[in-house]
Amino acid sequence: MSSEARKNSLVLHLAANPNPISVRVDREVVEDLGQRLVQVVRNGHTQSIRTADGKEFVVNFAHVVAAHFE
To answer: Which of 16, 28, 31, 37 keeps 20 to 30 A from 6, CA to CA?
Structure first.
């Protein structure tokens, strides 16, 4: 995987799953959510996320133990 692709991946570590989930996201998501990610996880917000291929999904951060961008 190229370094650019890694930079655009949101990695979610869920409480009920020992394996992290990695999702490729738009650069805009990294710029927008990156600044608020700690707060979103800490408060357990539900957030709509746009993937790199233009699809959208919702993450309930109440089930996320840790999240970061690669």
So the answer is: 16
Token pair belonging to 41: 């996880």
Please tell me whether residue 33 adopts helix, strand or coil conformation. Answer: helix
Secondary element (H or E) of residue 66: strand 64-69
Question: Can you give the residue ranges of every domain in the chain?
Answer: 3-69
Pairwise CA distance, residues 7 & 18, whole Å: 22
Mind listing the pLDDT tens digit for each residue in 4-49? 444 589 999 999 899 999 999 988 999 999 989 999 999 999 999 9
Indicate the pTM of the whole model. 0.84
Contact 13, 64 (CB under 8 A): yes
Tokens (6 digits) for 47: 């957030």
Element holding 38 (H helix, E strand): helix 37-43
